[in-house]
Amino acid sequence: MDRTRTALVTGATSGLGRHTAGLLAATPGWRVLLGARDVDAGLRLAGGLGPSTGVVPLDLADLGSVRAAAAAAAGHAPIDALLLVAGLQSTRADRTSADGFELTFAVNHLGHFLLTQELLPHLAPGARVVVVSSGTHFGTFRQSGPFPGPRWADPRELARPRVESGARAYATSKLANVYFGRELARRHPELSVAVYDPGLMPVTGLARAYPAPARALYAALAPLVTRLPFAQEPAQAAAQLAALVTGPAGRSGRYVERDREAPSSPESTDPDRARELWEVSAELVGVPAR
Ligand SMILES: NC(=O)c1ccc[n+]([C@@H]2O[C@H](COP(=O)([O-])OP(=O)(O)OC[C@H]3O[C@@H](n4cnc5c(N)ncnc54)[C@H](OP(=O)(O)O)[C@@H]3O)[C@@H](O)[C@H]2O)c1
């Protein structure tokens, strides 16, 4: 490798993002920009990981912060890998981002959409982009158990706060992640895009918005649940995710379930929805639909 490669990881201060950032920072030839909404946590993490890291303040629930983060990351261009790991699971769908969008859709999709758009001119040719989705986008018992499935609608509707369960809004945002990854691969053949599903990781911070008794029960069951075939430790998932960036480039636009390419849900393969989501997202965040 002729130069140090740079990766930007969103959601780097917890769970999957934290483990992945640690692995990449320890990989010779790589430096990692830690996307962190809690800058102190980012700085503490960077201090522990060593000199091959930097911190980029990033609140995906605030488009102004996303633009500033992209500008800061662009100062380290070319960016060789963009890992869109940050995610939010809420108990409701009536909370809003700084810009008035439904919070889950804003953080899990719109913020990442804008970050990617702003960084497109600063990505190295062949740059890896990994969008972290979830099996909940299937909405089937086999893939996501009793978790409610997505309910797709006009993306302008999805961006509006509404009365709906936060879990359903989460599954819908994870379906948006698949459409986004596919459309990014289609529009930008110069990139290598993967949509990654880590499976269930019960020991991350994703359930933090749930009521204390539910969290306590989940935490108590976590060691058992982690042993189920569809679950894994975040450290295992992080190794799979990091390999999507440091290993051989696969087919752009593929869906990767844990350690292997797999079909995403039939619903997620609709190219018209993917195109519409892209165009409406561009309109909502105020960028040209390129
Ligand atoms: N856990 C699972 O079972 C599971 C299964 C399938 C897919 N996933 C996906 O895996 C990804 C990582 O989740 P995780 O399980 O590791 O959960 P986690 O521990 O809660 O990590 C989520 C990360 O997202 C960050 N984040 C949340 N809101 C943000 C915002 N407004 N701006 C910037 N960053 C924000 C959090 O920041 P802070 O550190 O500041 O809180 C945290 O670093 C998510 O995309 C999730 O959908 C998880």
TrEMBL record:
Gene3D superfamilies: NAD(P)-binding Rossmann-like Domain (3.40.50.720). Residues 249-276 are annotated as: Disordered. Keywords: Oxidoreductase. InterPro entries: NAD(P)-bd_dom_sf, SDR_fam. The keyword Oxidoreductase applies. One of its GO terms (molecular function) is oxidoreductase activity. It comes from the Bacteria. PANTHER family: NAD(P)-BINDING ROSSMANN-FOLD SUPERFAMILY PROTEIN, RETINOL DEHYDROGENASE. Belongs to the short-chain dehydrogenases/reductases (SDR) family. This is Protochlorophyllide reductase. It comes from Geodermatophilus obscurus. The lineage of its organism: Bacteria, Bacillati, Actinomycetota, Actinomycetes, Geodermatophilales.
